Amino acid sequence: MSGQMSRQEFVRRAVGGLAGAALLGACRTGTPRAVSSPGPPDWAGLRGRLDGPLFLPSDPQYAAAKDTFNSRFDGSVPAAVLAAVSVADVQKAAEFASSNHIGVSVRSGGHSYIGASSLPATLVIDLRRLPGGVDAGGDMMTVSPATDLDSVQTALAPRSRLIPSGSCPTVAVAGLTLGGGLGSDARLHGLTCDALVSAELVLPSGEILSASADDHPDVFWALRGGGGGNLGVVTSMTFRTFPSTDRDVVTVAFPMDAAAAVIAGWQQWQQAADRDIWGMVNITVGDGPGRCTVILATPPGHGPAVAGDMLAAAGLSASSTRTRTLDRMDFVHYFEGGDSARVPRAFVAGSDIIGEMTSTAAESIVTAMASWPGGAGSATAVVESLSGAVGDVDPAASAFPWRRQAASVQWYTEALSDAATDWLTAAHRALGSASVGGYINYPESGDPLARYLGPNLQRFNAIRHTYDPAGVMLSGIAG
Ligand SMILES: Cc1cc2nc3c(=O)[nH]c(=O)nc-3n(C[C@H](O)[C@H](O)[C@H](O)COP(=O)(O)OP(=O)(O)OC[C@H]3O[C@@H](n4cnc5c(N)ncnc54)[C@H](O)[C@@H]3O)c2cc1C
User: 229 C-alpha vs ligand 1 centroid, how far in Å?
Assistant: First the structure.
């Protein structure tokens, strides 16, 4: 559908053998230290015990089975890929990996920025064939972990229900929730992980464990924002759902030289705005003149007035404003960005969390964008407020720590070259002390877990070590 635009698509359109297995040691990043092996893994024996197919590098289906959304990581060579069709398959694979000292990568939607669902030399447990789908009734929904966000919202929409979630149609509910889950309903209903009521997971021992506020609350704490690929393999998730309504979407464009004032003014206004008003700022540089836009989502019929309120409060003048009123699924499709958003691609991306959006912090985001080299293609920054219901949860009450901070900034480019990674480094440097960390669902290779979990790192690590003492589960993030 023309006119639809997901956050990522928004960004995208704007920017135009290891033969053996990963042996566990001290590291959880997927580049494990070699330790003494119990002998070559008996893959044939495992294959004979499974209901789902197991693909080894010699199998013709292996390449398709292992590749993930960010094709930068297509060169990764996992030891094997299991397309699990039952929880029993997951249990057998987890036990096999543990007893053979092989690291596990879990794959749900495969959208990890750093290829963490198909790490080199690991046993990949792919959950896309697990049965379950979406089972919704009343104000609850139980869902299979690899269910994509479009399927979740499509199943809920006829009941006029939703869960707060991200925008990409093919991101899976598990990876999104385990890292937090930021989207256009966050100011009203919180993060996706805030709607999680309970989960079932298979531990590296093969044991099945339930987690909720009353049942293994430590695990439940860690599953809400600590990031995927830790503790165990989540095989089922139950969420509270919320009523859905039509929404106005307003696109407000600004001259590029107003970008810093737009970020600071929008943020200040957004923080005090009603919770059913959400917005993000998008700044794009590179091919053509720079662009600065605010996208607002408001109650139906209120879009123009809300946009006017923002402009007046922030003392801004728009170069153009466009409003559409959309029913629930048109709203979802608008932010998804159409069929092209489903196509895997190579990209470099990362994030910063802004503690306080001072005018200096806003200017530093613009400075970071100005450091994008001319002629290298395009790059985008997306700024999202962490205000509203996100802050209703105490920062220590779940693993997601950024509940008293101002905003998340996502840096994104599909212009692949050294320029992209150099730009990310320059962007972090430009932000300096305005940045207090990063969002774990937008991770960067080589960053320590401390950058993403901040003050919650120690508790998270203690829980992780309790349930996965040998470090079988690999997240691609060290720490
Ligand atoms: C195009 C695009 C759009 C995005 N839009 C948004 C957005 O709007 N809002 C937002 O907050 N984020 C967004 N993200 C980031 C997204 O939330 C993360 O990339 C998320 O981790 C992807 O989850 P996945 O299941 O699709 O990916 P996967 O690569 O399968 O998993 C991601 C991580 O979680 C682990 N994991 C997956 N399933 C399980 C499980 N069942 N049990 C244990 N560990 C598991 C994996 O091992 C991996 O470490 C977007 C990403 C992309 C690529």
Answer: 10
